[in-house]
Amino acid sequence: MSIKKLHLVYFSPSGTSEKVIKKIASSITAVNKDLSVETHDLLTSASRKKDYNFSDTDLVFFCTMTASLVLTKFDEIFGCLHGNGAPFAGVVTFANTLYMKVILLEEIKKYTEKQGFKVAALGAFPAAHTLAASLGSENRPNAEDEKLMLEFGRRVYEKVEKGDYVLHDEIKLDESDAEKVSSYRAVESGGHAAFPFRAKTISDACIKCRTCVRHCPVDAIDIENKTFDLDKCIGCLSCINRCPKKAISPASPEVDELVKKFSGAVKVPFEVDMIF
Q1: How many whole angstroms separate alpha carbon 228 and alpha carbon 102?
Q2: E strand or H helix at 60
Q3: Is the Cα dihedral 21, 143, 120, 98 positive or negative?
Q4: Structure letter (DSSP) for residue 116
Q5: Taking a C-beta distance cutoff of 8 angstroms, is the pair 40, 52 a contact?
Q6: 64-90 tens-digit pLDDT
Q7: Which end of the chain is more exposed for a tag (fewer CB within 10 A), N or C?
Q8: Mean pLDDT of the chain
Q9: Nearest Cα to Cα of residue 217 among 20, 19, 25, 69
């Protein structure tokens, strides 16, 4: 059965994942100019309270970043998506350690299959890290990454048009990363409150334009009092990335130590993964 509509679903606090998924989609619309495209931005809590229903004539692309705390929203994000046999391609943008993208790809596959999608492909593309260029992802995605995004989109579309909705490749994890994954899982089970970089401060440079408020996925910012509800905050760093005056910054002394830890575990170069 031929695909009739392309759906772009994204949870993109800082905007990079949205750009990546739209770049990927551009290669498909270039091949089939008659294919209609619909976007679904799941950033706000209100958007995640809706139900999104798809069918086997839809091709659904989903993209988010590998910030570990976003995993605390996965039940809510994927709970509103109903596949009904729709073919699906999941994409992550990653900027820290490579094992994080593997974890998130596994999570996406698990959740989407549970929600009735047919996982046809998975991909991971590098993006700049908010807190530290030293993590090796500065100036990413670059021109070569964008070429691979276009290739990924074309290959997904060709595969689905042939009726191949099966994920043939395995999600591979280096043996050296096994211990890191176990450590991550242990922290994850303790809840997002275990992460220190949720704490932030707003300087006098703030003009109360409310950009941070509009792009906070969990309504955790009181801009009038310049405070954050850290019980709600998932540490996505959207507020830091989006602020036009650069008035928001980490407030915890543990952040520098956290960045150093990530920097020590990083593997470069960051390579694109495409799993079919």
Answers
A1: 31
A2: strand 58-65
A3: negative
A4: T
A5: yes
A6: 987 655 667 888 899 999 999 999 999
A7: N
A8: 85
A9: 69
